[in-house]
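Meet the record:
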Amino acid sequence: MDDAAPLEAENQHLRQQLQALLQEARANEEKMRRFERLEHRLIGAASLQELLQVLLQDYRQVFALDEVSLALVDGEQELARLLGAAQPAGLRLLPDAAALQRLHGETDLPQLGAFKPARHGELFAHVMASVALLPIRRHGRLIASLHFGSLDALRYTPDAGTQLLQRLAGILSVCLESALNQERLKLAGLTDALTGVHNRRYFEHRCLVEIAQARRHRHPLACLFLDIDGFKAINDRHGHAAGDVVLRTVGQSILGQLRAGDTIARWGGEEFVALLPQAGQQQAREIAERIRGRIAAQAVAASEQPIAVTISIGLSLLGHDIAGREPGQLAQDLLAAADQALYRAKREGRNRVVADSA
């Protein structure tokens, strides 16, 4: 009996160890299943916005992380234009890869360890206890950095395995490139090739969306119809190449004076249109005057002599009596009112803003 007691105790200890190993194996298996499900969602993301949601929201929730952030190199501000006002929390766009290069150096491996305020403070909105930093490279270039933060100091330690994180970094690099290419293809069909602003097709779609939003949330919606004054004379005097430069300059000048969330498009010829959500008449007029003043103040270097350019603008507001009316008809009425106001601006001397009187 006395000899059996130590053996029984040892067996009990072994059984406990085995049970612990089995529980760890089940936990790892479940973790792998969750990882694979999210991996499939990353690969299947239908848009850049969906991809970012999976990364910044779903990963945090599924793996009980306290914070997830992503830094993306956006040297040409392409991502900023694609995302617009829909840029999600946790995403940071960088003008170049210098900051990421300082963070990761030449390594392709994830960095795990304690949170260091001086080194990691800009990566997270709050102080963490431990972090995992994943360099994202594509074709040898550092294009992004994904960051996981935890309030548990033991969650990410330097001696922890990084195989899953390395796998995630590799998948994410491919998914990011694919999502960007998809967005570029979409944008190519909705962008005016000459001026770089949206085209009429995009505007017509966006107008219906903004009208639906304005009706649902009961906020104002303003429309601007903008026309370059004397554009035919500019073409006749300076040539069509110079006229193209004027169109590009004006389009970009209008874009530069709009707010995040506003929409600009080339309507056709020398005409542009803009939508200003949540802008009443006073604010819309201020924006329109800012556009008009900016264009009038700059001469366009498009020929041997700088070309003076002015613009006339018609302004209209979505009416209050819109319940039960079709969005398409409301869009036509909104544009027609802005067009009539533009006609008045031309008739009254050009280089001015005129609001619809309705």
Observations:
- The chain has eleven helices and twelve strands.
- The chain has two domains: 4-188, 200-355.
